[in-house]
Amino acid sequence: MSLDRFAIIESTLREGEQFANAFFSSDQKAEIARLLDAFGVEYIELTSPAASPQSRADLERIATLGLKTKILTHVRCHMDDAKLAIDTGADGIDVVFGTSSFLRQFSHGKDIPYIIDSAIEVIEFIKSQGLEVRFSSEDSFRSDLVDLLTIYRAVDKIGVNRVGIADTVGVANPRQVFDLVKTLRGVVSCDIEFHGHNDTGCAVANAFCALEAGATHVDTSVLGIGERNGITPLGGLVARMYAHNPEAVRAKYNLPLLREIDNYVAGLVDVDVPFNNYITGFTAFTHKAGIHAKAILNNPSTYEILDPADFGLSRYIHVAH
After folding, report:
1. Could you read off the pLDDT of 255-305 as tens digits, one per residue?
2. What is the 3-state secondary structure (H, E, C) of 28-90?
3. Which residues contact 297 (CB under 8 A, 6 or more apart)?
4. Which residues are catalytic?
């Protein structure tokens, strides 16, 4: 799998809704979806229609906007949720089941055979309706490896479009992510999605290592908003992938739109865009040290791996003394 062929599953309207300050109106959700579509993300994931009647109505509305991006919804691996989701107009359904000993003991109380049987039933039903389907374990990095591979083999065998690995509590480091994805890549033939939380500051690095190891899709949210510390930020992933291959990223995404997207969502959730935010923070392209300033004026590549012009931004030089 080439690193240049990755796809973004933008989850501001699902994971991002779980951010402490996120209370998006229907119109705001539609505008976020339009902006993300204009930016060029391949998928937009929305909250389960089982969460509330309003969540269902918002999903149905966004599914009718005529966007180029595929619309997904995220549901529990349960037939009731799947049946509710198939009539919303979504292009695909992302199903999830907790697999770690913590979640099996303290959340749902189900064993691995039950999880496999449920997954097969739900996946086959969704496929029969002509929709794309992903199955993800939850808390993958605290799950038993044998259990994980047993589940993934079973769902791959019946033709799931994508399997997901979720670092639900942000415990994984880049080496662990690479090793698990590499192992999984040798077991399944379907696509692999990575969902990484940022509790320990590794979300961007973990996402990149997942892609290096053979993952095909990465979940992001604008400014990384989500449960607790959130997940891989859209801008952070874009910056990392741009550093790897600027030409490919320029071709895939409408980069000058990123600042508007970050500012819009920041305003909705009542936070400032961090000063050191990837690409759009106000110091991202600001140089102050004399040695740096001289070199930048001669050749910006001396101290910049990202070209601000590609993002519709400017560089600044501050005079200190």
Report:
1. 999 999 999 999 999 999 999 999 999 999 888 887 787 777 777 777 789
2. HHHHHHHHHHHHCCCEEEECCCCCCHHHHHHHHHHHCCCCCCEEEEEEECCHHHHHHHCCCCC
3. 317
4. 292
Domains and CATH numbers, the chain: 3-268 (3.20.20.70), 286-317 (no CATH)
Answer for the pair 132, 93: CB distance below 8 angstroms, yes or no.
yes
Name 311's Cβ contacts closer than 8 Å, sequence gap at least 6. Answer: 255, 256, 258, 259, 279, 280
Using DSSP bridges, classify how beta strands 217-220 and 286-287 pair: parallel, antiparallel or unpaired: unpaired
Q: How far apart are CA 45 and CA 293, in angstroms?
A: 42
Locate 298 and state its tokens.
């001669």
Question: Rounded to two decimals, what is the model's pTM?
Answer: 0.94
DSSP state of 287: E
